[in-house]
Amino acid sequence: MQPDLVYLNYWKRKELLQSKTPKFPLLRWCFSQELCEVEKVIFSKIKNQNTVLDIGAGDLRFMQKFKQAGYSNIYHTQDIGEEFKYTYTTLDEITYQYSAILCLDVIEHLQLKEGLSLIHKLIDLLAPDGVLFIQTPNGRCIRSPLASDMTHLHCYNINDLWAYLTCIGLQVEGYRVVFEAERQTWKQQFLNLVTRYMITRILGLDYADNIILIAYKLNLTQ
Question: What are the pLDDT digits (tens) for 143-197?
Fold first, then answer.
């Protein structure tokens, strides 16, 4: 019988969350021709990888920006859409493992069980010592992730997703992602400080729009 992925390691996750939760630093994301702060972090970890698989590649923006930044190895794409040309249309077509897999802004379009199932499939497609990137809207953000796109079906918070990935044997680091320009006036900075204080300290929520988890599949046979 297949395990229910929703409740896989449930109490182990709860115990882990009670014992330790890492701090998740803040990164900025914005539309730009060059790599923004989040994309720089991703690129720094894929630039030396031999193969990259981009799941839910969409308009191919990430592929184009990473190639422009200097990535020259194998970069394959997968998406169910018909507006652009992809390497694969389904995961069933993929027959070998990749050293890096991007799953950016995808799992929120699936119900929880299906989203977790996708994550497990991607881990199977990840080569030993490979790295998996999962980016998704922040379920704790004061701006509801469900309000910006009617195709969003489930929200994740960074603590739970970190614990889930950790408990299935991955080494995980995470970041909270805020949508804002890297350069701001002093008035914008002051306004941000005030609103962020109110959101986090008074309302107990978060102002970061997205989360990104970077999970390493350790080769324990070495």
Answer: 988 888 899 999 999 999 999 999 999 999 999 999 987 777 777 888 888 888 8
Sorted by where each starts, the structural domains of the chain and their CATH numbers stand as 5-216 (3.40.50.150)
> What does the alpha-carbon distance between residue 160 and residue 156 come to, in Å, rounded to a whole number?
7
Using CA atoms, how far apart are residues 2 and 108, in angstroms rounded to an integer?
Answer: 23
Please name the residue that has the structure tokens 């539309």. Answer: 31
Q: Report the predicted TM-score, pTM, of the whole model to 2 decimal places.
A: 0.93
Pick from 100, 25, 15: nearest CA to 66? 100
H helix runs in the chain, sequence order: 10-19, 37-46, 61-68, 112-124, 158-167, 186-197
How would you class 39 by CB atoms within 10 Å of its CB: exposed for 0-12, middle for 13-18, buried for 19 or more? buried
Nearest to 2 by CA among 125, 117, 142, 139: 117
